[in-house]
Amino acid sequence: MTSAEQAPPAAAVSRARKAVIPAAGLGTRFAPATKVVPKELLPVVDVPALEYIVAEAARVGLSDVLVITGRGKDAIEGHFDAAPELEEALERKGDKRRLTRVRRSNELARMHYTRQREARGLGDAVSYAEAFVGDEPFAVLLGDDIIDERDVLLARMLEVQADKGGILVGLIEVEGAAISLYGSIKPAGEVVDGVIAIETLIEKPKPEEALSNLAVIGRYVLPPQIFDALRRTELGARGELELTDAMRVLGQDGVPIHGVVFSGRRYDTGDRQDYLRAVVRLACEHPELGADFSAWLTEFVRTLE
Fold first, then answer.
1. In contact, 157 and 193? CB cutoff 8 Å
2. Smallest Cα–Cα separation from 157: which of 187, 126, 196, 130?
3. In this predicted structure, what is the pLDDT of residue 240?
């Protein structure tokens, strides 16, 4: 083939501009605290978990954020709205520091909302984003999975997805039976510059059925074809539509799947033990509370010895 006959280069994949945050779960592990308060608004020190997630999206340029809620989650919209009475009270007191922090939540991003009719799995929740996303790649951030702002994951995933196209997932290494809590991936090669090609993936396998010790965490960058794949995906064993299964369908169609391996600080606020660890760790590092809290914690630990 001569140079004149060579096929034109493939068009570059557009970078994702929108984020989707599924937040319709009932939070049963935190009941009765979540009977009225959405689990995504439980405070991690003095900031709700969901605000950390929205801030992460905003930092990497995902300025339009769709939160998929459910019944009883109206407080989520309220948190990201203005609070005129509270703001006025803080202004009268001259408390500029707290006023800035209160206003932060409604200035982070352009917030959008839709409601999942019933809890039918993560894949079903993501399917509600089709009209919002249109024909563009987009990021999905799970509402109880916090990535420390000092560590890079989502920005790298957006970069790789814009270069390679297809599906990008966040990965961590786990040990033993812990893989049964996550999606498990089958590598299609070695890790290069923190990125690995994926042959296939399965949701929450038994430890003996795991494809590797690399587990999918709550960060995804997905192509718009995922919505058609979701329509073609059968319900899983729990009667739910799994996002992992739809990603596998796209992989079988020839859509490339890659993962970015993350080794930084991550807080799973959907688990009670990890939630408590996150509160303690971030409290120790808090610019106002950290020194006093760390000193108290040191003394408290000594009393347990």
1. no
2. 196
3. 86
Count the alpha carbons within 13 Å of 214 in the hemisphere toward its beta carbon.
Answer: 25
Arithmetic mean of pLDDT, 144-158: 94
Q: Residue 179: what pLDDT?
A: 92
**From residue 227, how far is each of 14, 73, 100, 123 by CA, in Å?**
18, 25, 39, 9
Strand partners, 81: none
Q: What is the pTM of this model?
A: 0.89
Q: What is the DSSP letter of 40?
A: G
Cis peptide before 32 (omega within 30 of 0): yes
The CA–CA distances, whole Å, from 278 to 48, 51, 87, 140, 264 equal 12, 15, 28, 22, 14
**Interior/surface letters 22-37, b for 16+ CB within 10 angstroms, e for the rest:** bbbbbbeebeeebeeb
Q: According to the model, what pLDDT value does residue 12 have?
A: 52
Within 81-178, where are the H helices? 84-93, 96-104, 122-127, 130-133, 154-164
